[in-house]
Amino acid sequence: MLFSSSAHPAVRRALVRWLQAAALMHLLIGLGLTWAGHSPLLGNYQLSIEQAFWGQAAPAPAREQQVWWLALFGATLQSYSLYMLGLIQLGDRLRSHNAWAWLAFGIVLWAPQDMLVSLQAGMWSHLVIDSMALLALLPPLLWLYRHDRPTTTLKGLERG
């Protein structure tokens, strides 16, 4: 086992807090994408997208469309972060290995597709971001899944 049994409650608590912080970061990033599209804060990121598709800064109408798409994605990310927080809450309160599994499945479904689509567009920065997300989220989720999984399983009904 990775940690001593006396450390399990503290490790579990720390991993749950880590996942909650990650979900809150998703919420903040989603808010930023939705409401800061025209700010210099996202200027370099938008320029990197434009250069991947245009080879230079995009014309003004294309930039406006990109800001619009980022805002829509930001709103979706905000919603995702709340679902993530909800599953973390359920997993924590109920010690539900299923909640951790659903979160892990969602990440495993998202990451390869996001990476492939990003690489097809030449957006290598997304590969780095996605890889960091996988490394930050999957190990805690797998540990929590294993820790909260029932140790005994009944196979069928037992008769008295």
Shape: elongated
Helix fraction, binned, reads over 70%
> Structural class, please?
mainly alpha
> Given the structure, what is the number of helices?
5
Distance between the termini: 35 Å
What is the strand content? under 5%
What features would you describe in this structure?
The protein has one domain. The mean pLDDT is 91. The protein is built from 5 helices and no strands. It has helices at residues 8-35, 43-54, 60-94, 97-120, 124-148. Helix 1 packs antiparallel against helix 3 (60-94) and helix 4 (97-120) runs antiparallel to helix 5. It has 160 residues and is mainly alpha-helical.
Brief rundown of the structure:
The chain is 78% helix and 0% strand. It contains 5 helices and no strands.
Secondary structure blueprint with pairings:
Elements: H1 8-35, H2 43-54, H3 60-94, H4 97-120, H5 124-148
Helix pairs in contact: 1-3, 1-5, 3-4, 4-5
